[in-house]
Amino acid sequence: MSSQEIPEENLPVEQGAAHAAVEVAEDPFADPGLPVHKPRIQDIDERAARRSERTVAFMFTLSMLATIAFIASFVTFPVDKIVYIWPFGNVSALNFSLGMTLGVALFAIGAGAVHWARTLMSDQEITDERHPIAAEPEVRAKVMADFAAGAEESGFGRRKLIRNTMFGALAMVPLAGVVLLRDLGPLPEKKLRSTLWAKGKQLINMNTNEPLRPEDVVVGSLTFAKPEGLEEDAHDFQVQIAKAALMIVRIQPDDIKDQRELEWSHEGIVAYSKICTHVGCPIGLYEQQTHHVLCPCHQSTFDLADGARVIFGPAGHPLPQLRIGVNAEGNLEALGDFDEPVGPAFWERG
């Protein structure tokens, strides 16, 4: 017979005593309860509480100043400015300043909130038994009472310095995001309404980089030109040529149907914007028999013998014409700028 089958009263004295000791042992999973609450120095010394209050207010004020510095950096530093900062090396002044100031603004709010909670808000642990999901009126009343007690213990209404600086920091931090909306793109202003073309500017051949003369343009040919003074190594060349690119063709004057086109031409030489009025693609396909030009992107077709009007495709309006003439040196020159914005329609057109 095993020891498990022997009645307890027949077990040896030593084994019976051990079994009894197990029965009276303490429950190892018993709830030890909450530790004794120890007050903080801020709880018993009002001067220490004031110091903590000033510390929290300083952090919130620092956040506001960092937000202002963020906005100032965005306005002050050009996007292409590079500076040396140890140990990072050569970095963008704009990116570095934006990252540092925004980081300080957010960190200061977090640090101020944490310091406020750890030193001034009540740190007494409160236990509450689980309750049904459906709250009874008494429970709701208790929640509101607890909320009011928590607000009172936090000093939110009593410590106005913390409250006001926190509101200031939280109100100003979103300004950093608002300022970043400026990076969605350049403001339209009236930049699209004008180009580098002006009265007296010579037409420069894009291939030879030499001024164009009327005899250089033969009937049926297509020539591309740029404004005098615009060099390919200029930092804004791509921006300017995207508006000022010009195509020049020579048509027999008798074949020109539009009267204004004829008046703005010189001996049948007409100059039109090279930028398609659909989505801004460069036009480069010319059919000399019909005097049609075709945009290779979406097949918008323009009739250069009839005011460059749209005869096919999604383009919304004709190509702008540049009025040209000949200067004293016998070179082709512009007699002004385009009379309307070049390229696709935009919201300022009118």
UniProtKB/TrEMBL annotation:
Domain annotation Rieske: ranges: 238-333
Location of this chain's protein in the cell: Cell membrane
UniProt entry keywords in alphabetical sequence: 2Fe-2S, Cell membrane, Disulfide bond, Electron transport, Iron, Iron-sulfur, Membrane, Metal-binding, Oxidoreductase, Respiratory chain, Transmembrane, Transmembrane helix, Transport
Keyword Disulfide bond carried by entry: yes
Its membrane topology: Multi-pass membrane protein
Keyword Electron transport carried by entry: yes
GO cellular component, one term: plasma membrane
Matching InterPro entries: QcrA_N, Rieske_2Fe-2S, Rieske_2Fe-2S_sf, Rieske_Fe-S_prot
GO molecular function: 2 iron, 2 sulfur cluster binding; metal ion binding; monooxygenase activity; oxidoreductase activity, acting on paired donors, with incorporation or reduction of molecular oxygen
Listed transmembrane segments: 56-76, 96-117, 161-181
Quaternary data: The cytochrome bc1 complex is composed of a cytochrome b (QcrB), the Rieske iron-sulfur protein (QcrA) and a diheme cytochrome c (QcrC) subunit.
Family membership: Belongs to the Rieske iron-sulfur protein family.
Summary of the function given for this chain in its UniProt record: Iron-sulfur subunit of the cytochrome bc1 complex, an essential component of the respiratory electron transport chain required for ATP synthesis. The bc1 complex catalyzes the oxidation of menaquinol and the reduction of cytochrome c in the respiratory chain. The bc1 complex operates through a Q-cycle mechanism that couples electron transfer to generation of the proton gradient that drives ATP synthesis.
Designated name of the protein: Cytochrome bc1 complex Rieske iron-sulfur subunit
Source organism of the structure: Streptomyces lunaelactis
